[in-house]
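Propose amino acids for all 81 sites.
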C-alpha cells in the first residue's frame, strides 16, 4: 500500500479527495503537524525571539496564512500566561 493510500485511509473520504486533488495538481502530500509540538515550539520561540518569529514558525509548520497564524500565536501566548 502506498503512503498516499495509507494517508487517505486515515483521513477518510474528504481527506482522500484532497490528497487526490493535490496529487493531480502536483503538490506533495504532507502529514498534518503535531498540534502539541507546534504549540510548544511557538511558546519557546515567543520567549526567545518574539511574536514575529513565532508567527513565521507557526506558518511554516502548519501552512496557515498570516492572519490565521497571528491569531493562533496570540491565543497560544494568552494560554501560556
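Proposal:
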Amino acid at each position: 500500500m502506498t503512503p498516499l493510500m495509507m494517508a487517505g485511509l486515515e483521513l477518510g473520504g474528504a481527506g482522500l479527495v484532497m490528497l487526490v486533488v493535490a496529487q493531480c495538481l502536483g503538490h506533495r502530500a504532507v502529514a498534518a503537524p503535531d498540534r502539541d509540538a507546534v504549540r510548544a515550539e511557538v511558546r519557546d520561540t515567543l520567549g526567545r525571539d518574539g511574536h514575529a518569529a513565532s508567527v513565521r514558525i507557526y506558518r511554516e509548520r502548519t501552512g496557515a496564512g498570516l492572519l490565521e497564524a497571528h491569531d493562533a500565536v496570540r491565543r497560544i501566548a494568552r494560554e501560556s500566561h
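The longest helix spans residues 3-24. The chain has a mean pLDDT of 82.
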